[in-house]
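It would be a great kindness if you could assist me with a short task in structural biology. I am sending you one protein, given as its amino acid sequence and as whole-number tokens for its backbone shapes. I would ask you to consider whether the tokens describe a fold that such a sequence might reasonably adopt. The full record is reproduced below for your convenience.
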Amino acid sequence: MKIKKLFIDLLFYIVGSFIYSVALTMFISPAQISPGGFTGLALIINYLIKIPTGMTIFILNIPLVLIAAKKFGKHFILGTAIATSILSLIIDICEKFIGAFEGDLILSSIFGGILMGVGLGLVLFRGATTGGIDIIGKLINDRFPFVSIGRTILLGDTAVIILSAIFHRNFSASLYSAVTVFITSVVVDKILYGSDGGKLIYIVTAKAKEISKKIITEVGRGVTIIEGTGAYSGENRQMLMCAVRVHQVSVVSKLAQSEDEGSFIIVCDATEIRGYGFNKK
């Protein structure tokens, strides 16, 4: 079983790294667009002193992986070390054999962002990362819990994009870099959470049992009844909590309002839902 898992992990790392490397070599680097992070930093170093991009990424990650090995689990660090090594090697290979896209900059930023998101998403899907600012974010968050990982990554990416604009003397490219980073993050989220996402509906009502029964029988979703008290009125009320797919929101809302016109309905985004009826993994 462990051998099978390792094989699948390696397959995802290789395919993801290849897609990421194609995006970097064909679209991002030739257009002087910065993807942020250690990859963007490696591109700057490559531009200044012509050291291979993949090798630079690998060297930059060595001290971080060694430091993080003391903080995080063996699986995460081992997966990250393997994924980073594979990515670094494939980037340097692709730089020798894949030509540059010579079309419009906006096309480079869009397709580069999409492909980088797909490649990175495949690696993250198997529980590893490509190192860099992700690890820095985890280390800072471990030391200072009030500083979110996302904020650290955003600040790091922004700093690298600004540096890239300064060294390349191409400030319009930095705007395209922002587009690329945004698209990459959206695609990564879709790969990691897209199939598991949905909506969370809260219904404050005086007819909790009637609405619950209809949701269960007509929509096929489970419902949790939460007891509550109105802070202003002091009356005891019940609130229903129900996780649904996006297309089921209007159905549940109509069912609730048909039973209780005075019901109070709140709909929230649920990035990831695990359990019966959704992703069980």
Observations:
- The first strand starts at residue 198 and ends at 205.
- The chain has a mean pLDDT of 85.
- The first helix runs from residue 2 to 28.
